[in-house]
Amino acid sequence: MNDKIFTADLILAGGIVVNSRARFRADVAIKDGLILAIGAPDAMPRAREIIDVASKYILPGAIDVHVHFREPGYTHKEDWRTGSAAAAMGGTTTIFEMPNTDPPTRSVKELREKQAAASKAHVDYGIYGLLAEDNIGELEGLITGGVNAFKCFMGNTFGNLPSPSTGAMLEGFEVIAPSGLRISLHAETASIMAWRQERLMAAGRNDPLAHIAARPAIVAAEAVARAAELAGWTGARVHVLHISSAIELRPLTEAKARGVDITGETCPCYLLLDTRDYARLGSIIRVNPPVREHSDSLAIWEALQTGVVDMIATDHAPHTPEEKQQDIIWRADCGFPGVETQMPLMLNEVAKGRISLEHYVKISSENPAQSFGLWPMKGRIEIGAHADIAVVDMERTEVIRAATLHSVRARITPFEGVSVTGIPIHTLVRGRFVQRDRSLIEATSGWGRQVTNIQRMPQAKPRNTDQTLAAALQGPFEALAGTAA
Ligand SMILES: [Zn+2]
Questions:
Q1: Quick one: average pLDDT of 44-63?
Q2: 143 has a pLDDT exceeding 70
Q3: From ligand 1's centre to the CA of 335, what distance in Å?
Q4: What is the pTM of this model?
Q5: Could you tell me if residue 305 is inside a domain?
Q6: Cα-to-centroid distance, 348 and ligand 1 (Å)
Q7: Full residue range of the structural domain in which residue 18 is found
C-alpha cells in the first residue's frame, strides 16, 4: 500500500506522542478530522500544512466529564461559548455538561433546549440528563432522545434541585441500567447536611470552616456506600463525582472489588488545596463537597495512582466574583471555574515529579473515554481515532490569573497567582485548531458537536431475580405466579 497517494490535511512534526503506557517520538498526520498516520517523517503522506512541534508532547485532549456551563438560565455566570472557549484554552477537547441549569435537563423538551445552547461550543460535548424524584417517567424519553449520561443529586448544590429519595433513586437506576448509560452521582447525603447546616446557622457559625462542619466526610462515605449497593443490585453503571475524602474511598474500593461498574473522579482542588487554605481564600474556597484535610488529599493522590480513583475532572462551576465573595459563608455560591486550569495545574504536578505524563494521560483522557463510552474514537492518539489533541510544552511556565480566564463572567479562582509549568499550547478538536499558540480561534464556536456513546450496551443484567418496580407493577413475578392462585 502506498501511503503517498493520501494527502493529509495537517502533520504535527517532531513531537513526542504520549499514551498511558509509553511515549515515543513520531509525526502525526491528520485527515478529515481523524488521525491518518503516526510514524517517522519519511513515512508521512504529503500534507497541506506541517506544524513544527519539536520537543513538544502530543497528548489526547482532556475529557472532562463534569462541567457546568450554566446555559440556559444562568448566563450571567457562563454560557456555552465562554465555557467551551475555556475548555479549548485548557487543552480539553470533550466535556460533559451537567443538568442543573434553568430549566433543568429533566425531559426531552429541555434536552432539546440544552442542545440548542450547546450548538455554540468550541469543543465536543456530552449532555447529562437529570435523574430526580419527579422525572422518573421522563427517563426513557431522555435515553432515546440522546442524553449521554445521567446525573443524580444525592445532596443539594447550586440550583437547589431536590434530592431524590432512595426509593426514587432505585427505580431510576432500574430504568437506566438496561441502556448502559452511566449515572454520575453527587454523593453527599442531603438529610445529614440540612440538619447540620441548620444547627450551625442557629449557633451563629458563619465562617468558611463552618461549611466543612455542615458537610463532614461521612456524608460522602454514606452516600457512596448506598449508591454502590443500588448499582450492584440493579446493574446500573455509576460514577462518583468529585471525591473529596479518604473515607469514601473505602466503599468505592469495596464496590469495585465485588464487580460493581463504579468509577470515580477527583478534581484539582481536592488534590492541591486543604483546610490550611481556608483562612487565606475565605469564601472563594467554598465548593461542594468541601476541600478537606491534608490527609484527605494524600489519600486521594494515592488512590489516583492505584486506580481506585479513575479520573480527573473539574466540576467547572463558574459564579460571578460578587456571588463568591461573601462575609457569611452560607451566602457564597459554591464552586469556581476549573476547565481552563486543570491541565496546567496537573502538568505542573507532572513537572514536579508527582505523577508521570503517561499516568496523566490515563486519568485525564483514556479512563474517561473508556468509562463514558467514547473509546476507541476518543481518548487516544491512534490511527482512526478522532484527532482530539493537546500539544503540550513542558518547559513553558505561566501564572494563573483570574483576569485572563476565558470564563469571562466568572473571573475568580482559588489558584490565583499560582505558577504552573506545563502548558497546552495548541488544542485540536477533530483535526481543527480551536486554540493555537495560546490564542482562542474564535471562528470555531459551533465546531463542537455532541458525542455518541459507542459502548452503549448494557453493562450487566441485574444480579438478582427480584422484579424491578416497573415489572412488579404489571403483576406477580412469573416464577411465583403459578402458586399465587
Ligand atoms: Zn458539579
A1: 97
A2: yes
A3: 8
A4: 0.96
A5: yes
A6: 24
A7: 3-55
